[in-house]
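Let us practice reading a record.
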Amino acid sequence: VYLANSIEPEGTGYSFNLGVIVPPIAMLRVGVAYNAPNWYRMTDYYYAEAGTYLAASSDPEFDDYTPEGMYAEYKLRAPDSCIFSLAGIIGTSALISVNYELTNYKSMRLSDRDGNGYGDNELIKDDFKAGHTVKIGGEYKVTPQFAIRAGYIWQPSPMQDQLRNGDVEVFPAGTIPQYTVQNTTNHYTFGLGYRFTPNFYMDLACIYRVQNEKLYPFSHTTWSFPDQDIYPVPSDPAKVSAKTTRLALTFGYKF
């Protein structure tokens, strides 16, 4: 048995962000921001082919594929979010900040090019909940020119328990049977900064990301027979811990 897929998405989108920072006292900064949804107009070009072989023959018993030039056009409304921040300045050498971001995943919408909603929107409402992200960071100036930084980001899964526990049937997109369900994601960051002149500076950042997931080879499915109960076909997930490390070096100049 074999299955081959390819998909090439392209499109455009737009969004806007608003925010304000207020210093109620000299050593404190309070901020609030709103990140509007990204509105996308997308086109997916795709191709799929599948077939089966008999053990005694090298020719496929079944072979089929999608016609050339298949595509789908749709609109996507990504979730919007609100951000609340608090930063404290400690003397002249240290800074600590806390950010909380609330993301409305239930507001995601799929529609055709004319704006007519898809039935997937009901599944979005059932399977997703509000997303929460907490960011904690600090900076300490060893000298007036040299600073060290550290931070932590905690992001629990925005998916409902019924989806994460495999209690509902999932309908993967296209012909790809496998899918992943996100659990908690943690980020650990460390950085260095150096200011060569009042205008010219350099930043070095290291980000270590750990995302825990469940990988399902296919969705839980149900079969229904006349005068019989519905028998589930279970899909046992594999636990996956994706760990990535990124380095970023930035040179900047302030006018």
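A brief commentary: Residues 44 and 72 are 5 Å apart (CA to CA).
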